[in-house]
Amino acid sequence: MPLSDRTSEIVRPPRAAGARPVDAPAPSAGLPGSATAADPGIERPSIRSRMGQARSALTGAFLGIRNRGGITDATWDELEEALLRADVGVKVTDDLLGGLRGRVKTKEIGDADALLDALRADMTARLDGADRSLRFVPGEPGSPNVWLFVGVNGVGKTTTIGKVGALQRAEGRTVLMAAGDTFRAAAAEQLHTWAERSGAEFVRGSEGGDPSSVIYDGVESAAARNIDLVLADTAGRLHTKSNLMDELRKVRRVAGKGAGRVTEALLVIDATTGQNGLTQAREFGDALLHDDVGVTGVVLTKLDGSAKGGIVFAIETELGIPVKLVGLGETIGDLIAFEPAAFIDALFAES
C-alpha cells in the first residue's frame, strides 16, 4: 500500500511536559510496572492490597481446613470447591489435588497446615520460569517495534494501550498509538485523549475503514520519524460481514511488513469473565499465529474486582501463554507487571 494512498489521519499532539523530542536517543526502559526516575510520582499498588475478592474465594475454605487439623474427605471437597470457585479450572485443580493426594498417601504430608503449604508451593511452581518481560528489540532508526493489542470489546483494551503508552513515554521511549479499531468511534477518541496526555503521536482512519491500512500507516509514519514503538489497537467486534479473526490475521501480517517488527501480540482479558477468558485466549491465539508465533502475552484487567483470579493458572498451564501485566484499577499506576509470588501471596493471605 503506497503512502500516497493513505487515508489515515496523523495527529501530532503537543509535547507533554518532560517528554523528549522524537529525534532524541531512547534510554533503556523496563516494564510498565517498574519504578524509574522518570515516573517518581506514579504510585503503584500491591496485588495483595487490591485482590480482596479473589482472596475471599479461598480464605474461608483455607481457614476451615486449618481449623479441622486433620485431612479428611471433606478437606478434599472443600479444596476442590474453593479452587473451582476461584476459576483455577478443572484440569489444573485435578492436577494439583492429584499430586497432593499422592503425597498424603505416602505420609509426606500429614496435616492440614502442611497440605496448604504444599498447595501454595505447587501453585507457585506452576507460574515460575515464564518470561514476563515486554519484548522490545533495539534496532536501526526507522525500524519501530510494534505491539499489537487484541481482545473482545469491553475488556479494557483501549485503556490498557493508553496506560502502556503513557508509562513507556515516562520511561523515555517515543510512542505512536494507532487506532486500528475503526468500527468503534469511541475507541479512537479515547486513544487520542491518551496520546495527547502522554505526548505520543497518533494515527486514526475513517470510521468503518480498513483497520490494516491504519496500522500500516502508523508503522510507516513511526519509521519516517524514528519513533521507537507503535502501539496498535484492533477491533474486538466488527459491524460488517467480515470475520473478526480473518481481519486480525490480516492486521498481523500487515503490521510485520515494511519497516515494522511485531515484537509483542498482547491479548487483553477481563478477569471477571473467568473461564470465558480461556476460550478467548485459544481463539485469538489461533488467529494471530504467524511464523509459529501467536499471542505472546496476556494483560489481565479488572483483577481487583474479580473473584476469578485463578484464570491465570488456566491460561499459563493449559495454553502456555504468560500473563505479563495486570490491571488493578483505573489510574496509570494501577497497571503493573505480574509477579507470581505476590499473586500467590495475595491468594493465600488471611487478611
Q: Nutshell version of this structure?
A:
Helix 2 (52-68) runs antiparallel to helix 3 and helix 3 runs antiparallel to helix 4 (90-105). Strands 1-4-3-5-2-6-7-8-9 form a nine-stranded mixed sheet, with helices on both faces.
If you had to describe this structure to a student in words, what would you say it looks like?
The protein is α/β, with parallel strands linked by helices and 351 residues long. The chain contains twelve helices and nine strands. The chain has helices spanning 47-50, 52-68, 73-85, 90-105, 112-127, 157-170, 185-198, 211-224, 244-255, 276-287, 311-319, 340-348; strands spanning 9-11, 145-150, 175-179, 201-204, 229-233, 261-270, 297-301, 323-327, 335-337. It has a nine-stranded mixed beta sheet with strand order 1-4-3-5-2-6-7-8-9, sandwiched between helices. Helix 2 packs antiparallel against helix 3 (73-85) and helix 5 (112-127) packs antiparallel against helix 12. The longest helix is centred in the first third of the chain and has 17 residues, at 52-68. 46% of the residues are buried.
